[in-house]
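Blinded run. Sample ID left blank on purpose so nobody reads anything into the name before looking at the predicted structure. Input follows.
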Amino acid sequence: MDALKEKGAKLKPLLCACILQEPSKVLIVGVCGKPRLGALKGNAFGLAFRHAAEETGAEFFHELFESSWIVLDAGVVNSFMVKLTEKL
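Blinded prediction complete.
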């Protein structure tokens, strides 16, 4: 994200998904190009993660302390990505 910023490129959310050792689980991590405003706006990016996961109907784990990562069932990753894109 810093490299894009230095080049003057428009900042967009960056998502990375990786398969976990736990069967059929995928970790998705997101970094938002916009600065976190915590007290002013809350974590809109983290809320988008949570709402997209809830809408898939799949079981998921979402750490309340850090809301820019989520563990999902592998079968719903595509659906999650589509829903997350709609929310951002």
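Unblinding after everyone has recorded impressions. The beta strands are 14-19, 25-31, 60-61, 69-73.
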